[in-house]
Amino acid sequence: MDLAEFNRLPADDARGILRPCLDVDRWIDAIVDARPLADLDSAKAASSAAAPLTTAEIDAAMSHHPRIGEKAKGDSAEAAHSSREQAGLGTLEADVQSQLAAGNAAYEDRFDRVFLIRAAGRTPEEILSELQRRMDNTAKDETAEVGQQLIQIAELRLEGILS
């Protein structure tokens, strides 16, 4: 779908297109209400205007994200997006896979949610380094960082939809 087609959609249809990018009504409404969008930068500006996400929005949106290094389950649009985004990680070496699994478990124990990071464009080593760095975050700082990562992921998905 291109941007002109997206701009012409009825609002409810546009919301349905956006929901797999980030299942946060306020974010979706910010983009739908900004139409007609002149270009992708306008769409990203509308997306960024919804930041920061609230803790409740983050918690709801996180229910759609698998652990990093694990395949998304199901055949939903969210699962398809996640599979494409993590495809760049390739087949992980056993050592990297075990470090990610241990890091994921430690992160979940500490923050009571799965570790979320924009995987697209990152190597497994960069992801591990970020996971380790973020373990030192306070709960408040980590929640804010998760919100930023959700927006980054959403913008990548939005770009993929509107290109």
Automatic annotation (TrEMBL):
Residues 7-159 form the Oxo-4-hydroxy-4-carboxy-5-ureidoimidazoline decarboxylase domain. The keyword Lyase applies. This is 2-oxo-4-hydroxy-4-carboxy-5-ureidoimidazoline decarboxylase. It catalyses: 5-hydroxy-2-oxo-4-ureido-2,5-dihydro-1H-imidazole-5-carboxylate + H(+) = (S)-allantoin + CO2. The keyword Lyase applies. The gene is uraD. Residues 67-84 have a biased composition (Basic and acidic residues). Residues 63-86 are annotated as: Disordered. PANTHER family: 2-OXO-4-HYDROXY-4-CARBOXY-5-UREIDOIMIDAZOLINE DECARBOXYLASE-RELATED (PTHR43466). Transmembrane segments: none annotated. It is an enzyme of class 4 (lyase). Its EC number is 4.1.1.97. It comes from Brevibacterium permense. Keywords: Decarboxylase, Lyase, Purine metabolism. InterPro entries: OHCU_decarboxylase (IPR018020), OHCU_decarboxylase-2 (IPR017595), OHCU_decarboxylase_sf (IPR036778). SUPFAM superfamilies: UraD-Like. Pathway: Purine metabolism; urate degradation; (S)-allantoin from urate: step 3/3. It comes from the Bacteria.
